[in-house]
Design brief:
heterodimer, A: 113 residues, alpha+beta, Arc Repressor Mutant, subunit A, three-stranded antiparallel β-sheet, 3 strands, globular, B: 29 helices, elongated
Amino acid sequence: MKKSQQRDLFPGALEMMILRTLKRQPLHGYALVQHIKRTSNDLLQIEEGSLYPALQRLLKDELVKAEWGISSTNRRVRIYKLTAAGAKHLEREVSRFERMLDGITRVLARGES
Amino acid sequence: MNWFKQLFSRGRLYHDLSDEIQEHLDEKIEELVAGGMSREEATHAARREFGNVTLIKEDCREMWSFPWMETLWQDLCYAARTLTKTPGFVAVVIFSLALCIGANTAVFSALNTVMLQALPYQQPENLATIWTTQKTDPGSEDLPPIAEVIDWKKQNHVFADIAAIGIPDRVTLAGLGEPGLIQFQTATPNFFDLIGVRPAFGRVFRAEEIQEQFQTVVISNTFWRNRFSSDPGVLGKTFRIEGMVSTVVGVMPAGFTGFAPWYSSSTYGKATEVWRPVNPESAQYAKRLDHWIMPVARLKPGVTVAQAQLEMDVIARGMEQAYPETNKGVGEKVVPLYDTLHRGAKDQLYPLLGAVGFVLLIGCVNVANLMLSRAEGRRKEYSVRASLGASRRRLMQQLLAESGLLTCIGGSLGILLSFWGIRLLRVMEKGHPDAESIRINGPVLLFAAGLSALTALLFGLAPAIRASRPDLNDALREGESRSSSGKRGWRTRYLLVISEIALAMVLLVGAGLMINSLLRVVLPSPGFDAANVLTMAVNLPWNEVKYVEKFSGKDMERVSPKVTALHQQLLERVTALPGVESVGMISIIPPLGAGMRTFSILGHPAPSPGERPEGSFNEVSPSYFRAMKIPLRKGRYFDERDTASAPWAVIISETFASRYFPNEDPIGQLILVRYAPQQVDEERPRQIVGVVGEVKQMGMGGLHPLLYESFLQQPEVFRGGSEFLHLYGSLVIRTTSDVRAHEADITASVKQMVKEMDPDLPVTDVSTMDDVLGNFMSGYQTYVIVLGTFAGIAVVLAAIGVYGVLSYFVNQRTREMGIRLALGAQRGDVFAFVSKLGLTLAGTGLAIGVALALGLNRFMAEHFWLYHLKATDPATYAAVGIVLLCIALLACYIPARRATKVDPMAALRHE
């Protein structure tokens, strides 16, 4: 379990980020990693490989679907798309996350005063 | 996606994933190269940033699979593959496990059936036997006189009732098809009620139903089925037992076989077929000399055996005063019925139990040792796998699969083995009435299998756990791994081997003592020439009016001259048969027994009543000694001079002569013989005319003082049932050539002759003398073989243990050996170096084993039948010690030799 603690902030965080990214546009794995890294300003030091088990998990739960296609750099890539179930799941997770974050922030703020 | 689809689309899924990851890496590399990195650097960087590809793939795969099932299958396949690569190891582990499980299940199942099950009687825990005991020998358990049961019944307050059952006996049956022998027991009428078993139909006999020439009997279900074809109209039918007319009044339920007290060896455990009544109140028993019934009592509810014992102690003191002649110094002893009936089985099974327990221990130790060595040897493999990212759980799972597979195979073989073992035990315990019902006992099987499985798992896993969190660097470095098992690992391994050898030594001592006893019994000559002798019994019935006339109300019988005439005529006719060289007759053939006679020597001071000299007595025909080729030491054999009217003569054995005539010539001495319990001497003295060689008459063990009388010189009137040796006659027929060639013809002729003389007379116990001797010890022999087998298994396992540890030692020290050799050590030195370790281990184990065996010697002395042998017999200890050392040496030899074959260059280049 050590490894996943290192690469995830909390269980499900990586999945949430993937879903959020895919909501904007379908992407293949490499682009997905790069996007997450870039948008987080490289704050999240995730192992690139750890993306794949998360993707597989999402695939299995049918929250995303994948298709082989050709990328903009003319590579044969597997492009991931959000499914309807995935979109719903993301909404739920995000609101849950926000509530949690809210709670954590309050606690931290009180602790400071 | 449902699981079914998953199952079939998985191949594609994995394939996609690999492709995808490869593309990912390629894209990254391209990008990095475009950013100005060299391709080589870029490849490394991409890999580094991606993480462990294999592990990630595995993670992904697990997501799609049924992890436990698949990994289990995987592990099993892998285990099977690795195991087949080390067939020797596998064979030894499976062999050990199978033996442990098999042997233990068999023996414990037997124990369970024979001993742990409640007796099949009503509230058996309240049943007890009452023995009399000599106060000078508190361990003794004797049968009380019949009449005593009446006194006890009247005087006690602790027993609900007291019944009595006779020693089982073989008796002749006539008037019901072919005459033959049946198993027979006498019982007081209340016996059946007391133990709570009622006839299936009909009724139990009554005390008054035993008359001089008539009795009622109850028959067993088997007897009813075999002899009466389950005829429902059997009640009221009659047959003759030993000539006495017997009327069937009841049939017992199926499965009721009667009591088999442990001490009656010839009939021990044989199912009783017919019960007849005895009346303890009969005047016949008033003299209190008849010791042939075993009292069985039912305790009143709430009364313990100890309380009953206290009461019986009081009664015993009263009896001593009331009957000083018979009861002086006699106590009573209350023993739970269970103990009485199971003593024989206990004596047999306890040592076996100990033996299989030891085998189980040794087997487990062996398995532990082997698993340990194997796992240690694979530390590097584990380290590599761990460093490649295998989780500890995964490693352990895989080892579990391996141990599990071994245990399963070993266990299944063990179960097969226990089936076979139980068959063997049934044969061995065939005397016991429950022998046929010995079945595999589930819990026992689980216990043995569980224990050995646990050992395999525990010792297989321990190194894996250690290996799964090693300092990877350390373990991976070649040199380190060679000596990494550490001092503690070795110490464990040495301790295991030492304990194996110690346990094997104890077993060997036990088996050795018994083998030694057996040899002491079997090897010396029985005192006669058994080759080409055929024997058969023509025993006349003791209740047949034709032969025996009873004196009403007196404990005396007049035997008709017809008896001697019949035997004599038979002897003459058999002598004339073709193929017969010589014929003799004796009441009971050696080594099956004799009667007891006390005597006084005329001209010597009269012995006091308790210390009368004794002899083991048989009647013989004058031709007996020549037919048996028993050598004459002094004087003469019986001959034609010794007729009924001539002065009575006796012949004695050497032991008799040396014991009772130590300083004088026995020839010509006169003795007055007496049937032991009676107080009356024979009417005439007998003169000792000859001394003959020793014969093993009373079993194959000790030599007893033997006394032979001619069957022609016997009184007319016998007392207290002593006529039975006169009625008994076994022919010993020496054939001119191989006895097997003549056996059938002679037997048929003798049967025909006997039938002509008396159609109701059976010819029984037809056998060659060689077989008689062989069978006599066969039970003990089987026992020795079984115990010896266990000891053998133990030794083999221990040897494997020594071998395993030494080969591991040599493997681990190859480099050291190489250096030693390179530095000029001779091959002999290396050989000595390795064997010294082996012998030190063996020696230590041996010493501990000897100490253990000495500690157990009292157990051995109590439970083993040791003939003229102390349980601490130094010769036996020395012999088995040498055997064990030799085997250990042999086990050292191969690894030690291999050590000398180490090529110093190869061993050093490995560095």
